Amino acid sequence: MFDLNLIGIGTGNPDHLTYQGAQAIRAADLILIPRKGENKADLAGLREDIIAQVTDTAPVIAYFDIPKRRADDGYLRGVDEWHDTIALRWQEAISAHPDAQNVALLIWGDPSLYDSSLRIAARLAPQPNVRVVPGITALQALTAAHAIPINDLGAPYVVTTGRRIRDEGWPDAASKVAVMLDGECSFQSLEMADYDIWWGAYVGMKEEILIKGPLSDVAQEILDTRANARSDHGWIMDVYLLNKRTKRSTGPTGL
C-alpha cells in the first residue's frame, strides 16, 4: 500500500504554496502531472516550476492525459464516467513505478473545494493512504485581490456553480454567492440591475485580471475581457462573487 498526497497549490502563484505543501512535495518519490492538451500546456509547466522551486533533487514525474468528458448522457453520469477514466489513468501511471511509496498530485486551489481528486482517489484499487494538504482556494485569492470580505456581517453566503445559477436562479437566504466552474457567464440569467459583482481571472498569477462594479454596468466588459483572455491564452480560470442589493443599500463596501 502506498501513500497518496493531494497537495493544494493555490491558484497559480508559487508564493501561495504553504510550507506544509512544500514539505509534502519534497517528500514525494513520484508526482503525477496531468496534461490537458497543447492549449493548456502552461498549466503543467506551472506545476513543474513549483516542483523545481521547492526541491533540490527533483522527484520522478509521471504525466497522464486527461480524457474528454462526455456531455451526451446527462451531466452527473458524464462526470461519474469521466472520474472512472481518470482513476484508470492514475492507476496506470502509478503502476509503471512499482517502487513508489509516496505519490503526490498537485491540485489547483484546494482538494476540498469543487475539486474531484478525492472522489477519483476513492476509485483506486488497492486503496492508498490518502493525505490532503490544504491550499489557498480561488475564493480566498479572489476576495484578497479585491480586498473584500466574502460574507456580510452575520450573514450566510453560498458557494455554487454557474450551471446551478443558470438552472435554479439565486439561492434562497444568501446575501452573497460565490460562483465557480462557470464557462457560460451564467450571471447573464439574473436580473442584473439587482446585483454587484467582483470577478477575477487567473487570480494570483501574473496574468491576473480583476473587474468589479454593478453587474448591469460591467457584465459586457467581463464577457469581452473573458473572451479575449481565453483567445490569448488558450484557456481561462475565473471565479466571481455576487452580492444581492437591498432596498436600503446602493452597494456593499468594496465597490
UniProtKB/TrEMBL annotation:
Pathway: Cofactor biosynthesis; adenosylcobalamin biosynthesis. The keyword Metal-binding does not apply. Its EC number is 2.1.1.152. GO terms for molecular function: precorrin-6A synthase (deacetylating) activity. It comes from the Bacteria. GO terms for biological process: cobalamin biosynthetic process; methylation. Keywords: Cobalamin biosynthesis, Methyltransferase, S-adenosyl-L-methionine, Transferase. Residues 4-218 form the Tetrapyrrole methylase domain. It comes from Ruegeria halocynthiae. InterPro entries: 4pyrrol_Mease, 4pyrrol_Methylase_sf, 4pyrrole_Mease_sub1, 4pyrrole_Mease_sub2, CobF. It catalyses: precorrin-5 + S-adenosyl-L-methionine + H2O = precorrin-6A + acetate + S-adenosyl-L-homocysteine + 2 H(+). Pfam families: TP_methylase (PF00590). This is Precorrin-6A synthase [deacetylating].
